[in-house]
Amino acid sequence: MSRGAVQIRAAEILSVRRVGEYTEFTVVAPEIAAGFKPGHFVAVAVGGERSSMILRRAFALSGAVARDEFAGTIQFVVAEHGPGTRWLVQRRTGETLDVVGPLGTPFPIPSGPSRAVLVGGGYGTAPLIPLARALLDNGSPLEFIVGAATAGRLYGELAAKRMVGQLTVTTDDGSAGEKGMVTDVLPEAIERVNAEVVYACGPMAMLQAVGAIAAQRAIRAQVAVEEAMACGIGVCMTCVLPVRGSDGRSRFVRSCVDGPVFDARTVRWSDVGKLPRDLVGADAMGGGH
Amino acid sequence: MADMTTRLGTATLPNPVLTASGCAAAGRELHQFFDVAQLGAVVTKSIMMAPRSGRPTPRMAETPSGMLNSIGLQGPGIDAFLANDLAWLAERGARVVVSIAGTHTDEYVALAAKLSGHPAVAMLEVNISCPNVESRGQVFACDAIASARVIGAVRRVADPLQPVFAKLSPDVTDLVHIARACADAGADGFSLINTLLGIAIDTDRLAPVLGGITGGLSGPAIRPVALRCVWQVRQALPHLPILGMGGIASGLDALQFILAGASAVSVGTAVFGDATAPVRVLTELEAALDERGFASLADAIGFAHLDEFGRAARLGGAA
User: Fold this and answer.
1) Chain A residues with CB-CB distance to B272 below 8 A
2) Torsion A68-A99-A101-A44 (CA) sign
């Protein structure tokens, strides 16, 4: 058997913390923490043992401590937007969660220093916090952009500020930082640090826009997507995106195992939710019915 | 410990717990959680002749105690399947039930021919009931004549050592009528049941949730329906083995299917929430049979069909 992800049926909640409109969990999960790399996510069961909600909810890890005075811990942030996440945010310290991880393909991290801009939208900033730490560790000069619709929906701006001197905050309504969107300030940030790469996580439209800005400047963008998934481990085929392969042909690929991190150039953003005719195997779907 | 060996036609399996088609890919991803050779068999996602993209997203909607999917049989095509997936499963020593799907009878026949003689293939499950094919109104398994035509044609070309099971849809008026037609055409057994066709509507977007509009309902929500189907077909055709499935998530769920007449069970949607569900169900089923005094799984198959005296006599004999 190949060891990748592990399931921890009773992972103790070490702390639950309210952060703006989000809830941040720190959970004891040594086996998951040990394998953690920035970009990994976990899948958490919701609703308790007799739950009618049969599918797990996926959360990007915002950090992991392989070992501290207790045991290895992981951290993730939950935005309440349905019965499953509502159940989760009502959990308290000392209760347990059923957690599977680490899942997904993490961010590629260059072996040496690499000038980079990190762009987080809403709770999408979560996986960028440990990524920034890893990039700083190998001597990379960074710019960090954190944005959200409102001040309450920002996440990680304090952690980002502490790590990276160059932080820009934007909100759509101007309730914190600059009024506007992350993509409004991205071009200047790229120029300031003379970036070679942009890393981003957030809503699909933001990732598409970030990818376009990076492409205009002929630099790469590594982006982490959030796509609805049933299993998180690559068996169900529900979380697919149209992605161009190295052979130039496009396929539906699983964002849970082949992602959630993709090179933005390879994702066919405008075709998400569609069935492009040139996709491998689209011809077999028949027409007109 | 109860003897867990079971037979599906000419195929003998060391235990009666399998994965379910479409819920385990081709076993590789689950192998990080448990050794797939431990299972009775791995049932692969339905394979077709050509690579197939599947439907646009969203492909999934969670529903009470279940989920809808409209994946649309995304797959690599039979040649890539043989070279990659089946070869991998064979290397691991896993027994394999290959689910085959087609848009025409000829496609099923060609798939059966390609799989003939492959030593890792324990059985063919003929998916004539996927609700996500292009002509949704014309699922083969909704029509007795169409079902019989496919099953008969596959049985004629398939490897004689590979039993041919017809996977049927519960979305019919008279399931037994369809099952009988398949049996007459040469089916060696039945896989019961495929998903039920459903719809979920997004009340914010005021539109269907799924890209495919309709989807297949699976999970514990459909368990009583699946169990009823197994019961009816067992009653009508007691000589033919049944692979039962539909919302099985525990050993006692599995036991219900066995008692209703299934010779083996597939654990499907439960895998999405708990990757180790198939091996857990196996352990729990084994314990449940022991607790009830069954010396073997075979003794429990169809047991609930016996009348009061029959049950007492059989259990008395076992004691």
Assistant:
1) 54-56, 230-231, 235-236
2) negative
CB contact under 8 A, A235 and B30: yes
Half-sphere exposure of B277 (CA within 13 A, CB side): 26
Residues 42-81 of B with CB under 8 A from A: 45, 48, 50-60, 62, 64-67, 69, 71-72, 74-75, 77
Whole-prediction pTM value? Answer: 0.94
Query: What was the ipTM of the complex prediction?
Result: 0.91
The set of residues, in sequence order, having a beta carbon less than 8 Å from that of B39 and lying 6+ positions away, is: B15, B17, B18, B19, B94, B95, B278, B279, B282
Of A140, A154, A71, which is closest to residue A107 (Cα–Cα)?
A140
Q: CA nearest A275: which of B81, B58, B50? A: B58
Chain B interface mutation, best of A235, A251, A258, highest count of B Cβ atoms under 10 Å: A235
Q: Write out chain A's pLDDT in tens, 289 residues.
A: 445 899 999 999 999 999 999 999 999 999 999 999 999 999 999 999 889 999 999 999 999 998 766 689 999 999 998 999 999 999 999 999 999 999 999 999 998 999 999 999 999 999 999 999 999 999 999 999 999 999 999 999 999 999 987 899 999 999 999 999 999 999 999 999 999 999 999 999 999 999 999 999 999 999 999 887 888 999 999 999 999 999 999 999 999 999 999 999 999 999 999 999 999 999 988 643 3
HSE at residue A164, side-chain half, CA atoms within 13 A, is: 33
Closest Cα in chain B, distance from residue A189 (Å): 34
Indicate if B130 belongs to the active site: yes
- Which residue blocks in chain A are alpha helix, DSSP H? 30-35, 83-89, 128-137, 157-163, 182-193, 204-216
**Partner residue facing B72 (CB), from A5, A52, A285:** A285
| DSSP code of residue B86 | I
Residue A71, token pair as written in the block: 């045991």
